[in-house]
Structure formats: structure tokens, C-alpha cells
Amino acid sequence: MVSWKQAAKPFLSSFKRFTSMSSVKQEMNSKSKLQLSLKTPKGTKDWAEKDMIVREAIFSTLSGIFKRHGGVTLDTPVFELREILAGKYGEDSKLIYNLEDQGGELCSLRYDLTVPFARFVAMNNIQSIKRYHIAKVYRRDQPAMTKGRMREFYQCDFDIAGTYEAMVPDAEILAITVEGLTSLGIKDFKIKLNHRKILDGLFKVAGVADDDVRKISSAVDKLDKVSWEAVKKEMVVEKGQTEETADKIGEYVKLKGSLTEVYAVLSQDADLSSNELAKEGLKDMEILMKYTKNFGIDEYISFDLSLARGLDYYTGLIYEAVTQASAPPSNASELKKKSKNVEDASEYVGVGSIAAGGRYDNLVNMFSEATGKKSAHIPCVGISFGVERIFSLIKQRADLLSAVRPASTQVFVMAFGGGKDWEGYLPERMKVANELWKAGIAAEYVYKSKANPRKQFDAAEKAQCPIAVILGKEEYQDNKLRVKRLGPEFADDDGELIEAQDLVPTVQKKLHEVYEGGVDEVTRLLRGL
Amino acid sequence: MVSWKQAAKPFLSSFKRFTSMSSVKQEMNSKSKLQLSLKTPKGTKDWAEKDMIVREAIFSTLSGIFKRHGGVTLDTPVFELREILAGKYGEDSKLIYNLEDQGGELCSLRYDLTVPFARFVAMNNIQSIKRYHIAKVYRRDQPAMTKGRMREFYQCDFDIAGTYEAMVPDAEILAITVEGLTSLGIKDFKIKLNHRKILDGLFKVAGVADDDVRKISSAVDKLDKVSWEAVKKEMVVEKGQTEETADKIGEYVKLKGSLTEVYAVLSQDADLSSNELAKEGLKDMEILMKYTKNFGIDEYISFDLSLARGLDYYTGLIYEAVTQASAPPSNASELKKKSKNVEDASEYVGVGSIAAGGRYDNLVNMFSEATGKKSAHIPCVGISFGVERIFSLIKQRADLLSAVRPASTQVFVMAFGGGKDWEGYLPERMKVANELWKAGIAAEYVYKSKANPRKQFDAAEKAQCPIAVILGKEEYQDNKLRVKRLGPEFADDDGELIEAQDLVPTVQKKLHEVYEGGVDEVTRLLRGL
């Protein structure tokens, strides 16, 4: 008679701490480089293994927060009628992916989640909604050297549509932005904040003609990537402004600081106060200051007049969250020059903003008007989390990744026996696994009639499975099963021999020990707790 | 002094049972019909409101089952290189959506999740994986009269790749299919099951030439939609088979019954037993019978020789789950004729199969070989749940839909006061909501400084919110809050006046009362419990 323990002995002692999947992954990477014809399209990628698990933890954290704020989710088609997207993205429209004209309607892949949301609101005549949407968007960009810029990437949006008192939903969106990032363990970030009306007002004050405002705004928008000199040159040489106008703009867009500080400076500015648009914007900022205090988020906010945001549709407050890791330092261009001979130049290449958004009061209107019906004016404000950029920040946390298990398997069902004519209990293992599945317990077994103990332990190890249910050749004939904790600290533990009918409660009890406290390890680490 | 109760009194009594969103929805539908230029592309739709919540419950139920079986998830790009999809879908290739050639690689939207999975396995040289994938796929079909056929629709796949003993993973896939459907409260279904090798063998035995096998198979595949006469005509007239061959095929494909019954008949068939392919298939079925018994799923299985499955890549076991509601009865064409004058002809139009799949042992190989490297032979078997068809079955369950709340809001924060100069406690409501959010509690408030009690109760009602936290004008100045259950049965309940510092524990206690047992109502109803 061979007991399960005798059969397994040689393997139990070598049951080393679960290795990460890194060796498998390395092999995968080297192979895929050789097989050039077998790939995903440029700028796209597969999400698998630990990356996928971390990404899902990010999604569930963020959607939990959105729900906490009364959000409901919406899913729109991945492509829209081409005319829906037309005229919404300014200079970036050239990046839209079109579907081939195969007869019928002309369609394009969505460029963001905001325009489809506005289309939905207008189409269904919705008066108010708080919606979140986590989905992929598409841009025919040149996949950049900078981390995280892809042609297919996720956005994670929360928007509030409806006519409300000034700055009330806006302030909540900012609170959600802070809640979202801190819940993902990102603490050292700033939300750069500006107001389109103040920006447009200061352009006017500086002498920019009405028709030039948008293109000057998009020049200012580049200030986080290039120097002021380059932006000034663009304004003067390419966009026909006078030196004087450019310099005046330069003075304003240098301003940044706390809401209170910058508001104090601007509200004293006689030129700006004479402009109606700017005055409206400043009134908003005054109200906002009151609300951000109640949400306790002032420390994260930097009122920054150089923030312009590229998209055409913003009409009020605009904002962008950056981290130390994602933002180039203020002397970026200098550092870049210096670092030519330095090994780690990548340090100064930011991943860009990790969340961004603003108020867009006319977008729904644009759609409503297109229907020829009396237009419904539905103001909107929202935030879009840059999930892939956030992901690349989080991926740097080694503690987090090492805690991620490849699969969710809780129990590995094994059989140990011996003798030439032993059948290996495969049907019996199936039966036991089936009982566990029915009780909601994740179970696997080796897909082999006569699996030797080594193979079965290897498989359990690969799945980082915490519990084994063992069918010993003789024990099982006596209607008995052995339930045993796995892992190096239990190498000498025989486990517990139980009556077969007690399987489910015994396993549940052991699982309770394993997952004591009930906290999901990945989510805990994600929050930086 | 106006107490919160006095201010609210007129509204508490009219606080009727939460209405469903149906009136809002009706309005939405009628409007959207008028606005024809504002729509989603043909064959696509928006998912919102209750539909979205039910769909998410379906997804989480199925992915829970997949994880229980050791599955890991994978996310591939929505488009693939066009050459990856080429030659995989037989006659259906014409339904593939292409991206416009805007320079660079030629790409197409994925047609299913199986080919991208096989590409992933081949590309990364993976030897074994159990993966699930829930995502949208694209087919330029004519959106049909039959329910649930769209151009963009979800698939929900579980596949096992790897070299294993015959029928071991196949049997588990069948167990997962049963587990998936029953967990969604679908009990009256059958899994039609056949084997490509038996099918190919019987075609040979009937006299079909090697080159004609695939096209004859695709003729047989139509048997669930058209009569045998029509299929026979297609074989003889269009596909050049003799009457005799067609009749012989006709005899075989009429066979259906339990695994044991049909196996008994076929294993006695001298013609079939003389064919090598058919013999291999029958050997598989013999093994399978043993395993399905261990999983206790025999009652769901119907061995049906008329099942052929359209796709080129299947090589072994094939299966398709149908329900009473989804399958046309065996005399469908007759009934159709008769029902011309009958009002409810739609009764006989099935929604098609609700889950389908099979074994495809050469697909990964096709990709590996394309790389010019020594081919890795990775056999696969899988199941694809037709989520949208399942969804339309589930949507008929009124009890389920009426239990779905539009949002997850748990607490509505209100302020009641009075007097012309009362400011309405908006910043104070924000502060209280913020405290709840930080404790992980879903809270909302009306976005208005001076919101009257009626407006606040209406908003809470719309969100079907179970608890109110009330800031009474004087009570709040005394650092006190009122926590009150909402709903008609609590109309006369004053709630509990508490110290402001006790807010979170008090709300948590009340929430515990509301969600007693902790069971998610939607999930419970989904399972038909």
C-alpha cells in the first residue's frame, strides 16, 4: 500500500516558493520578436497575464468610485457614423480611423468617449445623467517613444450632464479625480486647472483677433512639451500675431499657484477685469474655491494659466492631472539638452497627463441642432482617466506585481496511488472538482489519467494554488479525502483526512484561513496601503 | 423654527413606491424615432440603464465560472492584420469589416474571439492556457428580423489550449456550458453535439468526394433553418451529389438522441465502422460518455448527427446549446407555412443557438506554420456564449428587471430649512457626502443651493435610494444629523437624530439592515433562485 504521503514525499520538500511567471514571459517575448509576420497591428497590443489582472483591479477601483457618486454606465458602439465625429476634434481629426466603404453607411472608430456620450444624450433627449464608460478608443497616431501612447487605448470617463448651478458638478468631478488617483495609490500629483473663458479673455486683452483665438489656444497648449520661445515663434511666425501680443500672452501664461493666489492676482488685473468673458470665468473660479475647500482637495490643485487643452469643444473649466513621473519638469527643454550624454534621459520624458477633462456646454447642442429640432441645451462636464498611463506608473510597483496570482484557482484536486494497473482516478478527480465548482470554489486538476505526483504538484505550483484535495488510492476507497495547505511552509504538513461528504465545508474553512480578513491583496496593494 | 419633518411632511406621504424607468424610456424611444440623422450605425446599439446592469450581471456570472475553472482573461485588439483573418471563416469571410486603407498595414475588425486567441497562442509560443474573453465582435450581416442578430455584438468565450488526453478538456467545456446556462437561470436547454470526424466519415461512406466534404457539411449545417428537402436539393442541384448519396446522408443526419442511444446505433453500423475517420470519432464519443456522467450533465446532451457548424476550423467535437425559446421546432418549415395566417408566427423564429463551440486542433498550427518555423501543434477546444441572445431571453423575466435599480446610490444627502435668507447648506451637504464617499458609501445630493424638500425627495426616489441623511437647519447647527430610511413604509418614520461624528457607523448599520443577507438581488434573480 502506497500512501499519498509516501508517493508525494520527494516532491513536497522541493515545493519551493511560487515563482513569478517571469521566465515564461521572457521566453514569450524573445519568441515573438523572431516571428515578425505574426503580430498585432501597429500601436496595439494584447493584454494578458499579470498586466490584465492589474488592469482589471484599476477598472474595478475606478468604477466603484463612479458608482459611489451615483454614476451609471453606458456602452456605445466602437464605431460611429462618420458625420457624428466630424468637426469635433480640430487639428486632430486627421487621426480618426475610418472603416472601409463596403457599401452602406460611412463609419469611423470612436476617437474618444465624450462625443459618443454627447450623441447619446442628444439622441435620447436626456435631461440629466451621470455616466461612466470604460472602453477603448482609437487614434492613428505615430506610436511615440514616450511611454503609453498607443493607437488603441483605454479611456475611463465620468461625465455629468444637466443644467445645474455653476461649479457644483465641476467641483465634484475634481473630487472624483482626486479620489480616483489616490485610490490607485498615486499620491504625488497635481491637478492643473484653468478656465477657457479666462484664457479666451486674456487672448482678447492681449490683442488676438476673434478668429485666431482657437489656434493661439492650441499653440499655448504645447507649453507642457516645448519651451515658451518655440510657442512664441509659432504665434508670431506661423500664426501672424505681433511680438507685443505674444509677449503679453507670455506674461499671463506664466502665472501658476494655488486657486487663492492666482485668483487674487487675476481679480486685481484691470485689463482682464474689463473683459466680459474673463469676468465670467473669474466668477466661476471664486465659487469653485468655496467648494474645493469642502471636498478637502485644495492641496492637489494648481491654477495654471498655461493649460489650454487641445480639443475644440471645451467651454469652461479645464483640467489635467500630472504626476512627478508624468510631467516634464519646468526646465524640461534645458534638461533634455543636457541629458544627451546622460544615460537616463527617459527620466525627463513624461508619460503626459494621467487624467484630463473639462466643461463642454455646447457639444450636446451641436447634435440636437443637427436634427433640425428645437435645440436642447444640455451642459456637460467630465473627467477622463488615462488608464494606460496610470497603468505604466503602477507597473513600476514591484510589490504589487509580485502579489498578483496568475489564476484564481483555490483548490488543486490530485490523486496519488501506485502500481502498474492503477487507473489514476481521473473520473473521480472530475467528480470531486465538480462538487467544488458547484459550491462556487475554483478548482483544477491535471488533464491526465495517470498523472504522477510531481506533475500534479508542478501544476498546482504554477497556478499558485493554496489548497490541495488529495485522493489517496486506498483512502478514497474508504470514502475519505485529504485536504492540505500548499506552499513551502506546509511541506511537512500531512493535511487533514476527512470524510468525503465533508469536502465543501472543510475546504471553505481552509479558504477562510488563507484569505483571512477577506481583503483582496492586489486591491490592497493598489491603494498603497 | 421649521423642523425638517414639518418642511418635508407634504412630500413624505406622496412618496410612492419607486416607479420603474419605463416612462422615461418610452419617451426616449419615441424621440429617437423622430431624429433619424442622429443614430448609431446600422446593426449597432447603445447599452444603457437596466439593460446595462443586467448585462453586467451576466458577464460577472460567466466570468466567475470561467475563473472557477482556472481561466485567465485575455484582451486582444479590436482589429487584426487582415492576413490573420484571411482563410479562417469559409463562406462567411465576406462579412468581415475592413478598416480603410489610410496608409500602413491593412486591418480588419475581428470576426470572432477564436482566431485572435489562436494568433495569440501561436505568436507567444504558449503550450497551454485556459483563457476567457468577453468582448465585441463584428459581422457585416444583414441585421435580421430574428431577435438578437447584430453587426456589433458580444461574445463570451472560454477556450482550453494544450495537448491533453482525449476528451478531458472537451468534457470540462461541456460542464462549463451547463454551469454557465443554469447559473443564468436557463434550465430548459439542450446541447446538440456531434463530431466532425464522424460527420466527415459518414459523408465519405455516403459517397461524397474528398474535395466536396466541406461544402456538403455547410449544406447540412442549414438543417436547423430549412427543411431536409431544401438541403437535399442544394446537395444534388447546386453541389453535384447523386440522389443516392444525398439520401444516404439523409438517413444518418436524421439520427438524434442521448449519447448512449446514438452511440449504440453508430457503433453497430458496419459502413461507418469501416471508415477510419468515423472510427476515431466514435472512440472519442465512447470516452466522452464516461466523463459527462461524472459531471452529471448527460440529461442536457443530445447527440445529433445533423449538427455540422459552419466554420472551417473545427476538427473534432462540435456542439451548440439551444433552448425551447431559441430553437425552431423540428417541424419548423411546416409550422411556418401554416402560420402565415396566424398572428404569432414569431413564436417559431428561434433566436438561434445560445452557446456554441467545438474542437479546433489545427488553427494555432496554421499561424505557427505561417511563420516558417517548426510548427507547434497546440490543440484547442472552446465554447462561445451568445450573450446577446441569452440577454434577450433573460429580458423576458419581468421579476428580474423590476428588481434592477437604476443607480447604486445608497444615501441621499438633503437639507431642510426655511426662511428667505437661508442658504440651503449646499457646501455642508458636499462635506457630508464627501465623508460618506471616503467611507466607501455611495452618496448623492441635489446640485442646487436652495433645493426645496420636494425636489430632494424626487431625486432620491428617482435613484431608488434607500437612506436619507438630513441636515435640518437648526439640528445641523447643533452638530446633529438625521438618518432616515426612505420608501413608502417609512413615510411616518422620523428617522434617528445622531451626533454628526457618528454619521458613518450609523449609515453602515442602516445599510446592513437594508441589504440584509448581503445577496445581490439582481444576481439572485438572474439565477432563478
TrEMBL record, chains A, B:
PROSITE patterns: AA_TRNA_LIGASE_II. GO terms for biological process: histidyl-tRNA aminoacylation; mitochondrial translation. Coiled coil: none annotated. The keyword Aminoacyl-tRNA synthetase applies. InterPro entries: aa-tRNA-synth_II (IPR006195), aa-tRNA-synth_II/BPL/LPL (IPR045864), Anticodon-bd (IPR004154), Anticodon-bd_dom_sf (IPR036621), His-tRNA-ligase (IPR015807), HisRS-like_core (IPR041715), HisRS/HisZ (IPR004516), HisRS_anticodon (IPR033656). L-histidine binds at D112, L113, T114, R139, Q155, D159, R309, Y313, Y314. Signal peptide: none annotated. Gene3D superfamilies: Anticodon-binding domain, Bira Bifunctional Protein, Domain 2. It catalyses: tRNA(His) + L-histidine + ATP = L-histidyl-tRNA(His) + AMP + diphosphate + H(+). Keywords: Aminoacyl-tRNA synthetase, ATP-binding, Cytoplasm, Ligase, Nucleotide-binding, Protein biosynthesis. Residues 43-406 form the Aminoacyl-transfer RNA synthetases class-II family profile domain. GO terms for molecular function: ATP binding; histidine-tRNA ligase activity; RNA binding. GO terms for cellular component: cytosol; mitochondrion. It is found in: Cytoplasm. The keyword Cytoplasm applies. Its EC number is 6.1.1.21. It holds the Pfam family tRNA-synt_His. Catalyzes the aminoacylation of histidyl-tRNA in both the cytoplasm and the mitochondrion. NCBIfam families: hisS (TIGR00442). Belongs to the class-II aminoacyl-tRNA synthetase family. This is Histidine--tRNA ligase, mitochondrial.
